[in-house]
Design a protein that fits this description.
The protein has about 350 residues and is α+β, with helices and mostly antiparallel strands. The chain has nine helices and 16 strands.
Length: about 350
């Protein structure tokens, strides 16, 4: 199952990255072309023809301005058909109609052309609202892509560096030893906040304007995406500060306070002297032996509550009080981790701190 999950994530991340980067390259080349167009020379031209080009798709119709104009360079006449640096069509006919209305046949216009390739010319070399929608549209996709990259890099870092306690944050303020076992990385918080905000703004922009927003609206939306990312970081900070995410060992009393888990909706206090070992086992085995659901991530079933548990459990093995106690009573989960290496590192570190056997 671990191999299947790894292959799925690798395939998903690879395909997602390929498609997302293809659109990112389109955005980048568009921006480069616009900046290059700022160096174009100017001349005067005349509109020959202008109409609204209706483009029918399989399930939608879009509109774009179709222009033809002529201009003279060094005694030679050229004909151009491009309005902007990039061809833009929207579902709002008004966008194309306004451009056509302003460029009726016979109208004199300013033509911007490439001095090295005079046939390469446009009438508008500025950024526009419809052209700038794509970066916002791509925000959720880029957030998912960068999240996949962060997961992959984090896994490589743990495998190669093998950090203390599996990389979980350890804070020691005598007599308290605290370990944060559940945390949202600020990186994840920013990506989630920015991606979710971008997703909402796409509908807020496209539906009312029918794909023809003003440039100011798009720029304010970009600021909104950044603010959404900052809010995500703030939410992650609040989440991480909760004592329910921390394991606490009180060296003065010998008490261990365990964080909340899916199968334990509250913190649990365990006597250090009652622990005889720390065991690492698959989450599926833990659930079978205790008869409770502990893992949040599952595979192979329908819905989030179905299928086999995914992950590895670090478990306290408590000394049985009498012969009637079963695994349900003596196995006390500390952590459910998707990474086996990280779970192993943490289990070894914790066994060393408590001076008990690690199985």
């Amino acid at each position: 199952m671990k191999m299947k999950a790894g292959l799925f994530l690798l395939l998903f991340g690879g395909i997602w990255t390929f498609v997302t980067m293809a659109f990112n390259i389109i955005m980048l080349t568009s921006a480069i072309d616009i900046f290059r167009a700022q160096q174009f020379a100017e001349t005067t031209g005349t509109i020959i023809a202008a109409e609204v080009d209706r483009r029918r798709g399989s399930d939608s119709t879009s509109y774009a301005p179709a222009l033809e104009y002529s201009y003279d360079i060094a005694g030679q006449t050229y004909t151009g058909t491009r309005y902007g640096v990039r061809d833009v069509s929207t579902s709002n006919r008004g966008y194309a109609a306004r451009i056509v209305q302003d460029h009726q046949p016979g109208t004199e216009v300013v033509v911007y052309y490439d001095p090295n390739q005079p046939e390469n010319a446009v009438l508008n070399r500025e950024f526009s609202g419809p052209m700038m929608i794509l970066p916002i549209f791509m925000t959720p996709f880029n957030a998912v892509m960068l999240g996949c990259w962060w997961i992959a890099l984090s896994s490589i870092w743990i495998k190669t560096r093998r950090p203390i306690a599996g990389g979980y944050r350890v804070r020691y303020f005598p007599p308290l030893l605290n370990v944060r076992l559940s945390a949202i990385s600020p990186v994840y918080g920013f990506l989630a906040g920015a991606g979710f905000t971008g997703f909402l703004l796409i509908f807020a922009i496209l539906i009312p304007t029918q794909g023809d927003p003003s440039l100011a609206m798009v720029l304010w939306s970009m600021i909104g995406v950044v603010c959404g990312g900052v809010c995500g970081v703030f939410i992650a900070w609040i989440y991480n500060r909760s004592p329910k995410r921390w394991l606490t060992l009180d060296e003065s009393t010998g008490e261990i306070i365990l964080p909340t888990l899916k199968g334990r909706g509250h913190e649990k206090t365990v006597d250090r002297d009652s622990i005889e070992a720390i065991e690492l086992m698959p989450a599926t085995e833990l659930e079978q032996r205790t008869g409770k659901r502990w893992a949040s991530t599952r595979m192979g079933g329908r819905g989030s509550s179905q299928g086999d548990a995914v992950g590895h459990a670090v478990v306290f093995v408590r000394q049985p009080a009498d012969d009637t106690e079963t695994d349900r009573d003596t196995l006390i989960p500390v952590l459910i981790c998707l990474s086996q290496i990280r779970a192993e590192l943490f289990a070894s570190w914790l066994a060393e701190q408590l001076d008990v056997v690690r199985r």
